[in-house]
Amino acid sequence: MSIGPYWWPNPKTSNGLPYVRKDGEINPETRNNFTDFVEKKNFISAVKTLKNAFFFSDNKKYANKNIAFIKTWFLNENTKMNPNVNFGQYVPGKSEGRCFGIIEFDGLIEVVEFLELAKYKGVLDKQTEKGMINWFTDYSNWLKNSKLGIEESTRKNNHATHYDVQLLSILMYLNRTEEVKEYLSTITKARIFSQIKPDGRQPLELKRTKSFSYSVMNLHGFLQLAEIGQKVGVNLWNLSSEDGSSIKKGYQFMLPFLTKEKEWRYKQIKDKKPSEEKLIADLKKARKLFKEDAFDNTLEKLNQN
């Protein structure tokens, strides 16, 4: 259960209900122990750290600890999370849960990656593997068929992009490759062309109060989808619409703002340095994954600085 981060007590009512929205301004109440936000964040962080430790060291103690955490979170009858996000980003006085809560669970990909690694290394026991296949099957069905899941899948901005990342990562884990290929070739392809303009702008992200951050966040999701596409033979990275919309154009639009050749004139109420670092990491990743050299001049300039 989580509270929508940009919702605050209503100053015009005695009980503060219904909460009112302030885009981009995080209410500290949504990040405390009253919700599951802290536990979820700590869990995902632990899974990621232990996954990396196991990958680099081959020491099974890290894998075993991760399996214990995963059993507690997903499989133990007394402590497990049900395979849905029905109570994500609820708004006091307005709703018990909203589709926007799904994006808060995108760290689930770390769990998927660990399970794949653990199986490959021969340390994943059959009972845990079977349990997680069942959990992810149920959760993917919820994502595809529930009211909130369908609602999130039809958003026009970063929410739908990251919905795709989450769903397709899970379907890859479940070996539903043909379903992933079909989805990328139709639904995700249409998202790229509708969200990114021929000049690389992302209008719906530019409307936000943290426009730079959201532009980078959405592109990062598309990069993840292009990486999934590469695994199943769907080339999203070099995909372009007739009028020139593409993921690559989205990144190229951001380059002059990264090198300070242009000043970012859209609204950005928070420091954009973390997003700049994420963007640079994405450029390097694209270069490595897709042998992309279109960003080399920018990376060279940044290196010199």
Largest sheet: 2 strands, antiparallel
Shape call: globular
Tell me the series of helices and strands, N- to C-terminal.
EEHHHHHHHHHHHH
Q: Spans of 5+ residues with little confidence (pLDDT < 50)? A: none
Helical fraction equals: 55-70%
User: What's the overall average pLDDT, rounded?
Assistant: 97
Strand order of the largest sheet: 1-2
Gyration radius, in Å: 20 Å
Structural class: mainly alpha
Specify the number of helices.
12
Q: Tally the beta strands.
A: 2
Written account of the structure:
This protein is mostly helical and 305 residues long. The chain is built from twelve helices and two strands; from the N terminus they run ββαααααααααααα. It has a two-stranded antiparallel sheet. Helix 9 (211-232) packs parallel to helix 11. The protein is globular, with a radius of gyration of 20 Å.
List keywords for this structure.
305 residues, mainly alpha, two-stranded antiparallel sheet
Topology, element by element:
Layout: E1 7-8, E2 20-21, H1 37-57, H2 60-75, H3 108-120, H4 126-145, H5 147-153, H6 158-173, H7 177-195, H8 203-206, H9 211-232, H10 247-258, H11 273-290, H12 296-304
Antiparallel strand pairs: 1-2
